[in-house]
Design brief:
Keywords: Membrane, Transmembrane, Transmembrane helix. The chain is built from five helices and no strands. By secondary structure, it is mainly alpha-helical. It has two domains: 53 residues; 56 residues, no CATH class. Helix 2 packs antiparallel against helix 3, helix 3 packs antiparallel against helix 4 and helix 4 packs antiparallel against helix 5.
Length: 135
């Protein structure tokens, strides 16, 4: 008769779903995300009537802040529980979308509600991914 230990010892190991990342991914991903958020902020702010230099300054500041936050999250995420990591991803994404929605001319409460809703959705999705794909 087989014991559970003997059965599990014969089961083949599942292949890794995620290959190891290149070391440059720790700074390339935040830079790309920062450029995307900054460019989007420039586009929205200029379409709302700001001058090009003012929109450019807002976009540069948004890109630097968002890139730095993403870099910080990337550095500490391996030390966090999956629940905290999912909440952190949701908070960062919700703040970014709420900010972009606010500079598009929406009211502060509406932008806050939009950021909260999108952040909660991102947190739930990240929670699901982290719990189904963690080894």
């Amino acid at each position: 008769m087989h014991t559970p230990a003997a059965i599990t010892a014969r089961e083949p190991r599942r292949p890794r779903l995620h290959p190891p990342l290149h070391p440059s991914a720790s700074w390339v991903a935040p830079v790309v995300l920062g450029v995307l958020i900054g460019g989007w902020a420039i586009f929205i702010d200029h379409n709302q009537g700001s001058s090009i230099p003012a929109a450019f300054i807002l976009g540069i500041v948004a890109a630097i802040v968002f890139g730095a936050v993403c870099y910080g999250v990337g550095k500490v995420q391996s030390k966090l529980l999956p629940e905290v990591r999912a909440a952190l991803y949701g908070a960062v994404f919700g703040c970014a979308i709420g900010f972009l929605y606010n500079i598009s001319g929406a009211a502060n409460y509406r932008a806050s509600a939009m950021g909260l809703g999108v952040g909660l959705a991102m947190g739930v999705a990240a929670f699901y991914v982290f719990h189904t794909h963690d080894e």
